[in-house]
Amino acid sequence: MPAPEPRLWVVDTPNTSYVVALDADDRLHGLHWGPKLTYEQASELELPRTQRHGIFDAQGFPLDLNPASAIRYGQTGLQVRFGDGTRELELRFTAASESDRALELVFVDSHYPLEVRVRYRSLDDGDVIERSTALRNTGDEPIEIVRADSATWVLPRLEDYRLSQLHGEWGSEFQLTRGAIPHGETLIGSRRGFTGHHSNPWLAIDDGTATETLGAVWSTNLAWSGSWRTTVERYPNDRVTVSAGFGHDPVTFDLGAGETLETPVATGVYTEGGFSASANAWHDYALGHVLPHPEEDRPVLYNSWEATTFDIDLHSQIALAEKAADMGCELFVMDDAWFGARTSDRAGLGDWWPNPDRFPDGLGPLIGRVRELGMRFGIWVEPEMVNPDSELYRKHPDWVYHRPHRRRTEMRNQLVLNLAREDVREWMEDWLDRLLTENDIDFVKWDMNRPFTEAGWPDEDDADRLWIDHTRNLYRVIDAIRAKHPRVRIESCASGGGRVDLGILRRTDQVWTSDNTDGIDRIEIQEGLAQAYPARVMGAWVTDSPNPFTRREVPLDFRFHVAMAGVLAVGGDLHEWSGDELARGKELVDAYKEVRPTIQHGRRHPLRAGGIGGVQYVRGEETVVLAWRKARRFGNPDAPVKLHGLDADAKYRDEATGRVHHGAVLMAHGLDLGLDPGDYASGMVRLTRLS
Length: 691
Ligand code: DGJ
Hints:
Layout: E1 8-12, E2 16-22, E3 28-35, H1 39-43, E4 52-53, E5 56-57, E6 78-81, E7 91-99, E8 102-109, E9 114-122, E10 129-137, E11 143-154, E12 162-167, E13 175-180, E14 184-190, E15 199-206, E16 216-222, E17 228-234, E18 240-246, E19 253-255, E20 260-262, E21 266-272, H2 274-290, E22 301-303, H3 305-308, H4 314-327, E23 331-334, H5 364-372, E24 376-381, E25 385-386, H6 391-395, E26 415-416, H7 422-438, E27 443-446, H8 466-484, E28 489-492, H9 502-505, E29 510-512, H10 519-529, E30 538-542, H11 556-563, E31 567-570, H12 579-601, E32 603-609, E33 612-619, E34 622-629, E35 651-654, E36 660-662, H13 663-668, E37 681-690
Parallel strand pairs: 22-23, 22-31, 23-24, 24-27, 27-28, 28-29, 29-30, 30-31
Antiparallel strand pairs: 1-2, 2-3, 4-5, 6-11, 7-8, 8-9, 9-10, 10-20, 10-21, 11-18, 11-19, 12-13, 12-15, 14-17, 15-16, 16-21, 17-18, 25-26, 32-33, 33-34, 34-37, 35-36, 35-37
This protein binds (2R,3S,4R,5S)-2-(hydroxymethyl)piperidine-3,4,5-triol (DGJ).
(2R,3S,4R,5S)-2-(hydroxymethyl)piperidine-3,4,5-triol binds next to loops.
């Protein structure tokens, strides 16, 4: 039966197009990802011709739907194994359905009972394209799924290719690096069961010439919080694809008869205007289509962790809450060690009731006092984990991931609960619901402090599905809790920034960026995170000096100004702060509250001028500049900092000095920030556009 027409589709966004087309063999090619093309213009694009070199048939062309099949030797985004061992797919196109902003292409295997649906969705207010794939087993026998990427993005032919990625580790997440893409396969991902500190699923590709403000950038991300893999492949003929999906080698799982596997959403965006335009496109997407309550301003929170670690009780928490309230904090978050026998990291995880020695009358007295002080109340939990020394583990030793003949490897003295199990999911939903019903809680810091090991599930035939079902059930629990307690807001934390991705951000309100709160190290960490995610989610505490992790001494203003570039919070031991420091802290918290809507919802522009770095946020009439300089070399006076995104014809008033500047001058020549000449100088400038 002839395949239906048409065989070419244009996925349009407001400013861009992504074009796919089928060849005579029903292979789906990505013909264009870039500036907008009409259907007629796109129809002129030619399908690539296979290059043949003697008996060595070069793979030659990148595919948008890239199944393991004959003459495909590189990375393939769709790999299965049928019951008889066959791995090659021969997909036939059967149908397309197109609606306003969605396209679905349906393929079936020519012999085996597998249906593949490839989906594209665009938005009317931004250039991000959302893609996913669905695999359905239409037969009676299970099919082994080896790889099911959400999408393979085909980049246009460029003169050269440069990859920007975010790598890191605990305490130094989101380190931005840019480098040439080598030929072959570059693989980034996580095999740890969660997004991970070591790589983030965001990446960007340009031809090597883009700057912060100029040039075309192709960028992708994946909305998934479990293990994941993105393969950037540079073909021998210099074409590049990016294939992204959940799961990792060598995990496979069975797709049962009649079952459908839905992949997570993969996202991609093409922008012009340099890395800054790309980052802002992601911010707009998160604020417009991902976060549950993007319109809200995040409050200034106080978190007690660095002040007290495991040594807490009702009175010490109240004493901190009083200081935090005086400083203007709006939300008091009690961190670890309020429950069970959790007086150190060796015991108690899993026993989610208030420690009777520390909180003899439950949480009520603390919450009551926090409310009297005019703050909201938040609490720390780590629901996916258990200490072997806990009542939960003694009762349910089979509830953790484990293998019958292997040790149960502990990290931070804890094991990972098998959240893929329905009984574990129900237990988790129940106690969280009870905690939030019985206590007047506004905010939950949801932590996750170790990766999976010995990820087995002895009673389950297809145990590897835990790698997917853990994350799906995590989402289910959070979704259920949010539905039952709509006023509760959630912070995603995994030993700092280990679980920051578009999947978790669909159901949380902010993230804990890093356990490293050193004001200097934070500059790079925040710059990296901001490539993909908006300031509105980036939790940033001001803590003590010297910093407990790095022992670096950094002045209070500097620490504040860096933290004010995100969701400002305070996390120091306020009993150790001098009266002057507490008073200055309050001034800076008050100043932040005034500019918070601009920082949390505005357009972000990184700033650089000699040794000065910083960030500028623009929203409506208001512009906020936060800038810092670590050290100045003698004889090198500070250069004015050139601003961005202003109206050249407008005038802007500096709210502190009353001076009026021309937008054209601020952008072409810059603003003299008048920073202190000494080390660790910093400042904030607030400009208002005059009509
Ligand atoms: C790791 C988090 O990143 C910290 O902020 C703190 O909550 C600790 N866990 C508590 O154990």
